[in-house]
Amino acid sequence: MIIWQFSEQAYYPAFQRPGAMRVTLPQNQCDPREAGRLLNRYLDEYMLADELGLNIMINEHHAAATCMSTSCMTTLSILARQTQKARLLALGIPLANRSNPLRVAEEIAMVDCLSGGRLEVGLVKGAPYELFMSNRQPTGFMDRFWEAHDLIVAALANEGDNFSWQGEHFHYRTVSLWPRAIQAPHPPIWMTASSASSAREHGRLGYTCATFLSGAVARQVFMGYREAYAAQFGQQPGLDRLGYLAVVACADNRAEAYKRAEAMRSYFATAARCDPQFRNPWGFNPVEANVHALLGGRGGKAIPVYDSIDDYIKAGLMFVGTPDDVYEQLAAFHEETGGFGNLLMMGQAGELNHEDTVDSLTLIAKEVAPRLKELPDVPLETRYEAVG
Amino acid sequence: MDTVHIDELDFGTLSMLDVRGTQIELLRAGSGAPLLFLHGLDGLEGAAAILAELARSFAVYAPSHPGFGGSASRDGLNRVDDLGYFYLDMMDQLGLDAPVVVGASFGGWVAAEILTKEPRRAAALVLASPFGLRTAERREQYVADIFMMSRKELGERMQVGAPGPLQDIMNLPEDRLRRAMRNDEAASHFGWTPYMCNPQLADRMHRIVCPTLIVWGAEDAIISPAYREAYARALPLAEVASIAGAGHRVHGDQAQQLAARITDFAGR
Questions:
Q1: Domain locations along chain B
Q2: For chain A, does the N or the C end have fewer beta carbons within 10 angstroms?
Q3: What's the mean per-residue pLDDT of chain A?
Q4: Taking every annotated instance into account, which residue ranges of this chain make up the domain AB hydrolase-1 (chain B) (predicted)?
Q5: Can you tell me the distance from the alpha carbon of B156 to that of B161, in angstroms, rounded to the nearest whole number?
Q6: Residue among A281, A284, A294 minimizing CB distance to B177
Q7: Interface mutation target, options B151, B188, B190, B193, chain A, most CBs of A under 10 Å
Q8: What confidence tens digit (pLDDT) does each residue in A98-118 have?
Q9: Percent of chain A residues past pLDDT 90, beyond the cut
C-alpha cells in the first residue's frame, strides 16, 4: 500500500459561522489574506509530503469554505514544479460540471509536461450542489460526462493528425494539444465509486478505482471492480488499481493522536453543511433513484457524523493513534476490504494546525509507510469470504 | 409506461396517445368547443380542479407534456421550442385545427411557443401566470428561481392556499411520487437554463394574432410585476386580468373564477 497525502485546504476560520458551508456562504466571509496564508501553508505541507516520499492528491470544489482549491490543475501546476518525486493525482476534475473538456485535456497535458510525467488524473462527474455554480444542465449529466471523457482520452492519446469533434454536447473544429502529455497513451486515469455497480464500470475500463470514506461498503466496491476487471481482462487486477480515502492522525502517543483527530473531525461536520435543496438538484438523479431514496426515507447520501473518534475508527473513516496503532488499524481494514494498494490519506483536515500536520505526516512517512509497503496481498479465499 | 389511475381526474378519460413514436398520456373530458389545456410545473394532476371546471363547457384535451407525469420523453426534445413543434404534430393528429388554447405557468410558455410557430392554430389563447420571456437581466431577477428553493418554501410560494399533496411529496404513494419526480426532472430539463425562458420568444410574440387573455394571480410570489409588464408589452393587444386571492397557481387557488374567465373570453 502506498500513501497519497491529501488536504481539502479548508478555510477553517469560516467554520465558526452558523449555517451552510457551501453554495450560499457569502464570499464577504473570506479574508483573502488569510486565505492566501492558508493556501501557502497547505502547499508547504504537500512539499513536505514529497520530501518524505509520499505521493500527492489534490481535489477541487466551488463556492465552499471547506475546500479552497477551485481547480485541481491550478494547484497541481504549482506542485508540478515545486516537487521532485511525488506522483501527482487530481481527484478529480468534475467533467460534467465543466463546459470545455478540450481545455481540461490541455491542462492535463501541460501539467504532465511540467512534472516530467508524474500526473495521474481522476475524471469524476462532479458534485450535484456545484451545478448551481457551473449552471450546466442537471439532466443528461452522465451522457455529457462520457462524451467529455471520450474526447479527453482521444485528444491525449492522439499520435496522428489533429481531428475535429462534433458530438452531442461538445464541438471543436480542431483538437490539437500543445504541449502534449509525456505519459503515453495518457496519464493514468482514476475514477471514484461508492457502490459495486459504479465500480464495475471502472473495472471494465481498467481505470484505478477509488472509494471515499465508504467504510464497510468499500469491500463491495472493490469486489465489484475485481469481478468486472477479471471478466474484461482475464486476470485479477493488481492492488494498485484500488484506492481508499480516509482521515489519518498519528502521534508518538495515543492521547496526542486523539487530540489531532479531534481537530480534524470538523471536516465531517462541515462537509455536510449544505442546504438540502442543493444536494439533489431536480433532474440530477435518475427518477427511480429519487423514488427509492424518498420511499426509504433518505434525502440523499450524506457523510456520517459520529459522536466520538472511536466511532470514526470503527467505521473505517479515521485511522488514529501511534504509528503501531495506525498500521494495525490499516492492516485490519486492508484485510476486511479484500485489499487495496492506495491509501488516499487526509493527513490534514479541518482545523489541524501546521505543526501537528508536519509531525503527523513525518511519523506516518517514516514509521507507517515502510510497513504498509510490505503489507501482504490478501489471499483470494479471504477476499471472497463472507461477502453477502 | 402504464397510465396510473388518478382519482381526481375521474371526470374524464385518461389514455395513451402515440405522437410520431412518443407515447403521451392525454385526458379527454367534457363536450363542446375543443379546448387544449397545457399544464404547469404541478403536472396534469395539479390542474385537476380547473380541468373539471372547463369540462363543463368544453371538449377538453389535456396532455401531460413529454417527460412529465406518465408521458414518455424522447431524444431531441430538449427545449420548449421543440415542444412547440411536438404539439403542432399532436394537434394535427387529433384534428385540433383551432381550439381554445389555455396554458398555465410552464404550460403558458408552451402555448406561446406553439402559436408563435402557427399563429392560426387557436380560436383564443389564455395564458395564466405564463413563463417563457426572459426571466432575468444580469443581476435583476424577474421570476423567482424555483430550483434554489427548499421544497417547503416552494410549496408555500406556489399558491396562496395551503400547499396541496403535490407540494408535500414525502407523503405521496409510490406511483404518485414517481410522477412528481418525473415532473421535477422534466421541469429541470426544459427550464434549468436559460431559466424558464426562451430568449428568442420575445422577438416572435408579435406573430400571436388570436384574441389573447393574460391572467395573473394578484398574489403571485413567483413572478414579479416587472415581468408581467414585459408580457403586456410583448402582447400589446392582449387583455390582462388579475385574480384576487390567487398566487402563481391561479388554476389551483381560484379554479372556478379562472374557468369562468376562460369561458367568458372564449365565448365572445
A1: 7-267
A2: C
A3: 94
A4: 35-260
A5: 8
A6: A294
A7: B188
A8: 999 999 999 999 999 999 999
A9: 91
